[in-house]
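Recall the central idea of this unit: under ordinary conditions, the amino acid sequence of a chain determines the structure it adopts. In this exercise we apply that idea directly, starting from the sequence alone.
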Amino acid sequence: MLPGGMAVAAGELPAFEIVVNNGYFKPKRIEVPAGRRVKLILINEGPGPLEFENDEMHIEKVLNAGARSFVVLPPLKPGQYDFVDEFNPITGELTVIAK
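Accordingly, the structure predicted from this sequence is:
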C-alpha cells in the first residue's frame, strides 16, 4: 500500500482504501488519476450500516457494519466528485479529486 491508501500493481486498477467509522470517512478527500478507472475499497467499521452514494454517477453501495466491499469508478474527467453516506449525510462525506 502506498501513502494515501493507493496500491497499484502492473495491469491493475489504482485502488484507494476508504474506512468509515461512526459515520465519518477516512480519509475525507482523495486524489485519483483522471482518465482512468479506479477502485474504491470500502470498509465499514460501524457501528451502523453505510449507504455509499453518488447520484451523478448512479453509484450506490450498502454495507452492514463490519463489511468490506468495493466500487469501480469510471474514467473521470478532471474535477471534484462528491460521495455521501445516506445514513449519515452531515458527517459522511467523501470528496474525490480527479487530476
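The chain has a mean pLDDT of 90.
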